[in-house]
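Q: Could you fold this chain for me?
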Amino acid sequence: MPLDPFVIDPAKIMASVPVVGIVIALVGGLFLALGAQFQHRGVTVVEERYGSGHKAGLSIAQILRLLRSPWWVLGTVLLGLAILCQLTSLGFAPIIVVQPLGVVALVITSVINARVSHIPLTRQAIRAITFCVAGIAIFVTVAAFVAQESVINTTQLVIILVILGVVILLLGLAFAFFRRRFTAIFYIISAGVLYGFVATLAKVVINRVISGNFEGLTVFAIVALLLAMALGAYFVQTAYSVGSPDLVIAGLTVVDPLVAVAIGIIVLQEAAGAPLWVLPVWLVAAGIAVYGVFQLAKTRAAQVAATQAEAAKNGHA
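A: Sure. Below is the predicted structure, expressed as structure tokens.
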């Protein structure tokens, strides 16, 4: 029986306008950059006034103090808007297209943080940021032409939930036993991985709601999404207490989309019709972006150490 041409299919309409999703994702990147800067300021103040100096994760008392910090609250509101934009964009385009676009936040955050902290971006830092942006740009450009939407089935959702359960267990054990040894990179990568699952589960929930497939397993996916989001948020706040906001955003805007995209390709089959040359191009692009993150971490850490040493020297002079 032929389909009624006058019947509106919401799933097809939303999947046919990926440009809208791209624009919304870019706006979300702006909110992400500003929110990160404000949250970092709030966390830094709390850590300086009430921290133990061990850098082993924020305590419950410190978290409660954050709730009374105007800067942190403002940053949280802006990050909430960033998440809203991200979720909306996922309804208009495949995850492998819009998720990496958060990298725009890296450029904005780096410029703002350099002005606020009075630690200018060196040529090495600018080069590292360029690697991050270039790698993600190559990835998104290719993805925009080969990505495809499809209804997400129960098996795919179960696979995602099982993998997420294993990831949360491993991160929980690592944090419980080795947190005093961890640097900002651990918290950033951990948060990025968790947020990658958050974006993927959000895409799954949106997809299933649009296709009219909302049942018990979808509700469980929402619960898992909220759990991963909460744990990821804690790791992000801890990362702010031990690292600069541009480093945190660099990790999140690279690790988060790479995890989400990997799941989108392997589990959700969003690149099932892509030609063979696409995979090696994506691997190279991902490698470039990850290299940029680690170079930025190395460069910014050296800058901060040099600035602190100079300040201490001037203080003793």
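A (continued): The chain has one domain: 10-316.
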